[in-house]
Amino acid sequence: MKQPNLLFVEDELKVAAAVKKGLEENGFTVDHAPDGAIGGFLAETKEYDLILLDLNLPFKSGYEICRSLRQKGTAVPIIMVTAMSDIDKKISGFDAGADDYIVKPFDFRELLARIRVSLKRNAGLTSEKPEDLLLRAADLEMNLSDKTVTRQGIPISLTVREFNLLEFLMRRYGRVSSRSEISEHVWELNFDTGTNTVDVYINFLRKKIDKNFEPKLIHTKSGMGYYLKDISIHEHTH
Ligand code: CA
């Protein structure tokens, strides 16, 4: 397999050098751009598998680079790197079309995990045939290419996290997933599953996709976890 080719746009040279070295040790090829002008130029002229974008950069911000790439229709995965003081700006990062963000100072392993998740997600999507970009369960339909969800043809608006959770449940149709499996796949990292975050998000999803519809699709397996299934029909469709 070819080495994934990354662009890292970062004006803090010490951070850039350490991250570049770490990524190269883990099998990546890394171009480093020290400011937004060079970063924007490289991002638009060279092909990358993933772009890591610092937010505050000389000449052109990470936000501007990201927005301009998306306006040109570039689908490359983009992870925004933001300083703690810029945390409010992460929202605008998502508006500009970033796939994920990480807050400085970060643990290198966390960065690596996020890069791998983004690359895997992208590879999974692009290798599928167009018709595979639709997931269906009963009258619930998820379009993975334009990130829309409908039930009985009615558009349902989901947050990124709700969408990812629903996608996970739909891909595991009929199979029970524990809270820790869900948090590992949907939150993409192992975190303390003592929290009830998963239950909270399951409730958000239920309100949106099940509350006003029949049959109910999201089910609780007591003591085990959750699964998505149309239990009103027999298995002959699968
Ligand atoms: Ca910076």
Outline the low-pLDDT stretches. none
Query: Which strands sit side by side, in order, in the main sheet?
Result: 2-1-3-4-5
What ions, cofactors and ligands are bound? calcium ion
Mean pLDDT across all amino acids: 85
Percent helix range: 25-40%
**Count of beta strands:** 11
Distance between the termini: 34 Å
Strand content: 15-25%
Provide a descriptive summary of the structure in words.
The relative contact order is 0.09. It is elongated, with a radius of gyration of 20 Å. The strands form three sheets. It has a five-stranded parallel β-sheet with strand order 2-1-3-4-5, sandwiched between helices. Strands 6-7-8-9 form a four-stranded antiparallel β-sheet, with helices on one face. It has a two-stranded antiparallel sheet with strand order 10-11. It is of the alpha/beta class. It has eight helices and eleven strands. Helices cover 39% and strands 21% of the residues. Helix 6 (160-171) crosses helix 8. Bound molecules: calcium ion.
